[in-house]
């Protein structure tokens, strides 16, 4: 029985040494096939791709999402969209749209009222009362 255990432990040691050797070989192969350093990597990337630097006057802004555009419009119109429901709950997209539409309708009504009640210049009579 002791002979069996000694043979089994020997086999385990041989397999573990083989496993470690193969893992080391794979690791070394991967390291050698990679670009050796960051500076070399940057130089290789720069030579492959032409880098364009934007002019200082031009700014490259990302495109705003529809909700961000609505929030910007609400901000400009004076509508409170942030924390509108309390507890840090903002207005939803549909709520912002309806608020902007209501604001636009109220402005149109005010313009119609102003157009109807435009004061005309009072007629002056040629004779003045003294």
Report on the structure:
The protein has 130 residues and is mostly helical. Among the domains are: 2-36; 66-116, no CATH class. The chain is 61% helix and 0% strand. Helix 3 (66-77) packs parallel to helix 4 (93-116).
Residue share in β-strands: under 5%
Give the H and E element order: HHHH
Q: In whole angstroms, how far apart are the ends?
A: 141 Å
Quaternary form: single chain
Low-confidence stretches: none
Helix content: 55-70%
Instruction: Please state the structural category.
Output: mainly alpha
Q: Any idea what the shape is? A: elongated
- Helix tally equals 4
Radius of gyration over all CA atoms, rounded: 39 Å
Largest sheet: none
Q: Could you tell me the number of beta strands?
A: 0
Averaged pLDDT:
77
Write the layout of secondary structure elements.
Layout: H1 2-33, H2 38-48, H3 66-77, H4 93-116
Helix pairs in contact: 3-4
Q: TL;DR?
A:
The protein is mainly alpha-helical and 130 residues long. It has four helices and no strands. The protein is 61% helix and 0% strand.
Structural key phrases:
4 helices; 61% helix
